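re: ur question from the group chat, yeah i did fold both. here u go
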Amino acid sequence: MDKIGQIEDYVRSTMTGAVAHDFKHVDRVRHWALRIAKEEGFEDLEMVEIAALLHDIGLPYIDEESERGKHGQVGAEITGRFLDENFDLTEEQIEQITSAVRHHCSPPSLVADLLKDVGEKGRLIAIVRDADIMDAIGAVGLMRAFTSKAAKPEYAPGNVKGDTWGLSGGEVDERFAKGLGIGGTIIDQINFQISYYDNLNTGTAKRLARPLVDFMRGYLIQLEREANAQ
C-alpha cells in the first residue's frame, strides 16, 4: 500500500466517533487543500495531502468539550511520532506538516503573526487552515452546524437570524473575550461559521468561499421569511 493509502487507513480507524469531524470531513478538507494548493502554486502536493488527512487526528484523544482547542497541539505530537516511525520523510517535511496540524485551529491573531514570522514555511499552515474553513461554509457548513449542534434550539422566536447575525471575525473574537461565546442556538453557530470568512489566508480560498458564504446568508434570510410566514 502506498504512503497516502496507509495514512488514510490510519485516520479512518482512528476518527470514528466525532460528530461532524469524521473521515468524511477529513476527506473533504483534503480535496479543498489540494485545490487551494494547486491554484496557489504550492508544489509539494503530497505534503499537503498528508497534513490535511492528519489535521484533526488529535480530536479522538480529547475527552472534554472544553479541551477541544488543544486538539491541534495533541494532533501535532501524534502526527510527528506517526510519520517518523512509519515513513521516510525529511525532518523539514515532518516539521512543516506538524506545524500545519498544530496551528490549523489556533486563534486567528496568533496565526497572522506566525505567518508573518515564518514566511514561505507558513504556506502549508495557511492552506490547511483555509481548507478546514471551506468545509465549515456553504451547504456542507449548514449540514455540519445542524448535525453538531442538534441538541440546541434552532433559533430564538422573534429573532430568527439571532444577535450574532452579521458579526465579523473580529467581533466574534470580542464576544469570546467577553465570555459570551457563540450563542445558544444553531443559527448562532451558523453565524459563527459565516464569520470564518474573515480568517481566510489565501486569495484562492477567499475567492472560492465568497459564494458559499453568500449562500449561507441567503438561507438565513429565507428561513426568517418562512418562520414569519412572509
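okk and heres the other one u asked abt
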Amino acid sequence: MSNRGQGVRTTHTVFSVVEALDQEGGATATAVADSLDISKSNAYDHLSTLQELDYVVKDGDRYQQG
C-alpha cells in the first residue's frame, strides 16, 4: 500500500512541476524547487525525466514546456 501512496505523491509532484513551468513561462530547477518547497535534487530529477519524455526542454539552466 505504501508504494501506491508514493506513486500518488510522485504524480502530484510531476503535475505541480509542469504547472510551475507553465505559470512562470519556464524556470530553473532551483526556482521550481523553491516554488514547490521540494529539494533541488528532487526538482532536477522530475525535470530531467520530463525532458527525456519530451514534455519539457532545457535552454541553458532553464526548463520550459516543450
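fwiw on the second one: The longest helix spans residues 2-24. The CA atoms of residues 17 and 23 lie 10 Å apart. idk if thats what u expected
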